[in-house]
Amino acid sequence: MPHRPHTLIHVVEDDPSIGRQICDTLEKFAYRAKLFRTGSEFLQHLRVEAPSLCILDLGLPDLDGMDVMHRMRKTHRFGVLIVTGRTDTSDRVLGLELGADDYVTKPFEARELIARVRSILRRYTPEEYDHDRPEVRVARFAGWQFEVRTYRLISPDGHEETLGLAEAQLLLTLLRSPNQILSREHLLSGRNVSALDRSIDLRVSRLRRRLEENPQHAKLIKTVYGAGYLFSAVVSWS
Q1: Which CATH architecture has domain 138-237?
Q2: For range 88-108, the mean pLDDT
Q3: Integer distance in angstroms from the first to the last C-alpha of the chain?
Q4: Which of 130, 98, 221 is nearest to 170 (CA)?
Q5: In CATH, what number does 8-123 get?
């Protein structure tokens, strides 16, 4: 995948050999990598420089990786890839709920790491707009409005909030294909998913909590068991 030359990626990993391995792999593929051995060092550096992506180990010596991500997400919206040796699925689920985009478990192959890095960076690349239709900026559905370029979501009663990137891109994908069944793989930009990979389900759940009166009995984002999800609304663009 083409990317901007020297895209900066921060690697937060306390194991020197693994940290260097990750950085060497990234640099081999023309990314610029900066290594941090502690969560505190990383958070302090964020005040002066933010990356396009952070590769974050959960098992840090000073701060729990979940705590690092929670603090980071309060002020920054770049991509996050969790690297963990933990086998407990709940840790990965919690990481995704806190705002991580994906995870990879140790040990991992270089090509798997790069594939996940590319996938996340692709989600954070600004949308390419049709120059023949520059007026298309706002989607309207079921009384809601979604501003594509600002990620601003306006409820039927006028309440406004700005979505995070993952939720905004999920909503945009649904809005572009209303009343069609979309597979979990499609909603994850084509990445194959396993039975334990709940990242898209968690994003759907967060989006439902924003849009649905009763998220347990969703009317807008419907689950089609064994197939995926369906966005049940008429969508207009302006």
Answers
A1: Orthogonal Bundle (1.10)
A2: 79
A3: 31
A4: 221
A5: 3.40.50.2300
